[in-house]
Amino acid sequence: MAGIGLKLNWIFGKRTILSSVLGVGYSAGVTIAPMAVIIGNVLLMGKVLGFDRLGYAGRELFSCTLLYIFIFSLLTTAPFNAVLSRYLSDVIYEERYADILPCFYVGLLLNVVFSALFGIPFCIWEAVVGQVGILYVFTGFIGYLSLVLVFYSMLYLSVCKDYARISLFFILGMAEAFALALLFAWVMRLSVPASMLLALVIGFFSIACAELASVQYYFKQNSGRYREALSYFRKFALLVVTNFCYTLGLFIHNFIFWGTDLRMVVARSFVCAQPYDMASCLAMFTNLSATVLLIARLEMHFHEKYKAYSEAVIGGRGADIRNCQKRMFRQLSAELLNLARMQFMITVVVFLLCEAILPQYGISGLVMRIYPCLAAGYFILFLMYAEIIFLYYFNDNLGAMLTAVVFAAATGVMSGFAAGLSERWYGLGVVAGSFLGWTVGYLRLRWVEKHMDVHIFCRGTLIPVRIGAPEPSRVYEAR
């Protein structure tokens, strides 16, 4: 994300109030704008088309379909994207740009096939057992695969540092979806849920097509080396586990509560816990600014220290390496502390606004009783995610995996325990899981700091390792 750093340094370098506002807006635009555009478009379509006046069954079927599309598209793409991102980084560093398209096609095939393996059986169940119309089921399935393509293609556009184009694609796609929803409902006389779902799916598909076309525009050469990208899944298997466990940890507490008394079954297919899911969504958005702050702080401050240390390792003296190392870890500590302090202030303000405003719009009762504990949990969760990013910086894949595994496992176990407590403590699983994950990440960063020289200078081999017959023991013979 060096492109973000250069842009932010240029904006904030003016040191004015306006530049600060623009810097924050730019950071938000390249990180959370796509999600905000989708949510805003769904709310706007519902308001214009009178979604809240529909029957309960139709509203819940649409809501659950959209919920499942997002959750499971993120889960099924999680095992692949981290490894492919690492492969892209290595290819770009070595300037082997012709190897990017083979990686893209391999990842595209893996994501679509793996996602379809889970999506098709569920859609068959929804149509046969749930008695949902086949066209509605097929539309939801295409929307699911379209989002898989959208999330996957964003990886390659991020490599091109074309974040503004990603946001533009989402804006145009959702504008198209809004116009089509009105057309389907008012002109073609489709039902409101069917109109909204079909319009959103077309919008997602348009975004995916635009992103795919952009990837083809940036990378035109194809070396045909497909197997090399596949070999990275064996070489960096820890990244597969890390990204999947972190993504699973984001939703595993929801899955636990889907099996409690809050459970609601729609069309004998979709399972959800509406009050808990709504509280989780609010808690996530309460702390989502941490992502913006993390990217801004990393690119503006820490990346510079990390780059100086890397350059010192390549060609500096021992004293230069030690000094740069100390500066880098001091900056790392400062970034974690600043992130926690700034996000805490934002979280408190947003939390108080939600408590004061949301009940006036019908969001109250059980949702607002669950929300405070979850908000605290997501606050810690995003701090833990910052530690995973720092571990990635130091190529400590084992530490990142341990952090993600502990987070997912502890969140699942403690959520099962919290389900038996009072409503105000339902979010205890997220709090405990995030805190344990944060603790593991922090301890691992301390370990990396203490063993940095070994970690950097003692990882390679002087003699290449290969499989085959041993070399002869006699290396010299006098004549």
What report would you give on this structure?
By secondary structure, the chain is an all-alpha fold. Helix content is 79%, strand content 1%. The protein has 17 helices and two strands. It has helices at residues 2-12, 17-31, 33-49, 56-93, 100-128, 134-159, 163-187, 192-218, 226-235, 237-257, 274-287, 289-315, 318-357, 366-393, 397-418, 428-450, 452-457; strands spanning 264-266, 270-272. Strands 1-2 form a two-stranded antiparallel ribbon. Helix 10 (237-257) packs parallel to helix 15. The chain is globular and about 95 Å long.
Kindly summarize this structure in a few lines.
The protein has 479 residues and is mainly alpha-helical.
Strand order of the largest sheet: 1-2
Structural class: mainly alpha
Radius of gyration: 24 Å
Helix content: over 70%
Strand content: under 5%
Mean pLDDT: 84
Instruction: Name the helix and strand elements from N-terminus to C-terminus, one letter apiece.
Output: HHHHHHHHHHEEHHHHHHH
Please give the count of helices: 17
Layout of secondary structure:
Blueprint: H1 2-12, H2 17-31, H3 33-49, H4 56-93, H5 100-128, H6 134-159, H7 163-187, H8 192-218, H9 226-235, H10 237-257, E1 264-266, E2 270-272, H11 274-287, H12 289-315, H13 318-357, H14 366-393, H15 397-418, H16 428-450, H17 452-457
Antiparallel strand pairs: 1-2
Helix pairs in contact: 1-2, 1-12, 2-12, 3-7, 4-5, 4-6, 4-8, 4-10, 5-6, 5-9, 6-8, 7-8, 9-10, 10-15, 11-14, 12-13, 12-14, 13-14, 14-15, 14-16, 15-16
